[in-house]
Structure formats: C-alpha cells, structure tokens
Amino acid sequence: MAELGKISIFAGLSDSDRQVIESRCITRTYPRNTLIINEGDQANAMYMMVSGKVRVYVSDGAGKEFILNSMGPGEYFGELSLLDDETRSASVITTEKSTFSILYKDDFSKLILQHPEIALALLRSFSATIRQLTGNIKTIALQDVYGRIRKTLLSLALEKDGVFVIEERLTQQDIANRIGSSREMVARILKELAVGGYIEIDKKHIRMLKKLPESF
Fold it and tell me: Which end of the chain has a smaller Cβ tally under 10 Å, C or N?
C-alpha cells in the first residue's frame, strides 16, 4: 500500500486519517505503455503514484497529441472524478512499469462523510493545481518558442554529479507536443543550443552544460 504521507494531496493529514484512506485504496501495477485512463471515458477513480512514470496528454480527432505533464512517485491524477460526474479530460499512459494506489469515487464519498478534513485537503490541493495550470497557459500565451523550450528543459532537469540532466527520454516531437510548436522548430533550437555548448544530447539524455540564455 502507498505511503500516503508522500502524496502531496494528503501530506497535511494526520497519520490516522491517512490510514483511513489507505484502507479504502487498492494497489495495482501496470507495465510500460499501458493506457491508464482515456480522454472522454467515464471517470470514477483517483490514481496516486507509488512508483514509475506516466505521461498526461490530450489529442484531437486527427490523432495529434499535446503533452500536458509527466508524473512520477508522490504525484496523483484523476482527482476531479471524486467530486463530479464528468468524463476524463485527458489521457494518461505509463512510460515505464508503474504502481498506483487507487481510490474509487464510491469509497471516497462514504469516507468524507465521516472525515470532512480530507475534503478540505483536496480543496487546498486543487487551488495549487489551478495556479500551476494558469502559469502553464501564461507561458504558452506570452513566451516565444525558445522561451517555452527553455522552461520545459529547466522544469525537467535534475542535478546529478554537479550537472543538470533530463533523464526522461524526450524526442524532438515530445518537446514539440509539450509546448505547442513544430518538431522542425524544436530541432533547430536544440541544434543551436548544442552548437553553442549549452546542452549535450545523446540517445538517452539531455545534459545542460551551462546556464541556458534568457533569450536566443
């Protein structure tokens, strides 16, 4: 069972409250490239990540995808399904073997009648999520393509042995899908950054060799 203290949405709850929630959850493990939820399907559960990674995305009728987010242990998705009867607003697929702690809507509804403080924790988390989404929309609306690429690279980079590395395997198309641009434009900017000595790209990772310029 997941250690819910590591799940940000429940971090402010007491141990006893988290134990109550854990008693209502089930744990499931799925292999890489498993579609966990599909955009447009009926929603009935929230997923909390114990291990692994997922990609959150939306798509149009022509199959074009726009990546909204990547998630890992301690993060969660599908929380809106606990509060309304709408369909899924995005799809989620595993990018590596992943384990989830799953809380179904019927169990949650019964739980908050006895523990209303859990509902308050959800509301606080929703507020933080909305602020983050507003920031993402602002970035897309106000920054040029380089600015969006820069913000994406910085948000994904982790320090490793004194060097910032993006461990997630990203293709040029993956980055284009995240920022709402063309693959060709992304390829040109990444090439210029590599030639300028700012980044190093191999088949697995992107390494940041020095601070990315504010503009390019």
Answer: N
CATH class of 144-208: mainly alpha
Q: Tell how far CA 189 is from the center of its chain.
A: 24
Phi, psi of 73 (to 5 degrees): -55, 135
Ranges under pLDDT 70 in the chain: 1-3, 5, 11-12, 129, 132-142
Q: Please list, residue by residue across 183-200, b when 16 or more beta carbons sit within 10 angstroms of its beta carbon and e when fewer do.
A: eebbeebbeebeeeebbe
- pLDDT for 2 equals 46
In this prediction, residue 95 carries a pLDDT of 93
CATH topology of domain 4-140: Jelly Rolls (2.60.120)
Q: How many CB atoms lie within 10 A of CB 157?
A: 20
Task: Please give the pLDDT value at position 1.
Answer: 44
Q: Which residues contact 41 (CB under 8 A, 6 or more apart)?
A: 87, 88
